[in-house]
Specification:
Elements: H1 9-15, H2 23-28
Length: 56
């Protein structure tokens, strides 16, 4: 999960393309990134992608 403050919205919108999302923007602003452990509330699965056996 990612939480972005309002001051980053325009930059993320401009740089997020395709499957890369905000990756490049976050790298460029690494000094402003705070990692927060959330293993107790999520398991890391990418839930917006269908499983290979799931019908469209």
């Amino acid at each position: 999960p990612v939480l972005l403050g309002r001051k980053h919205w325009a930059g993320v919108r401009a740089s997020a393309t395709g499957d890369r999302g905000a990756r490049e923007y976050l790298k460029a602003h690494a000094a402003e990134v705070a990692l927060v452990e959330c293993g107790d509330i999520a398991d890391g699965r990418d839930v917006d992608v269908r499983a290979p056996t799931e019908a469209p």
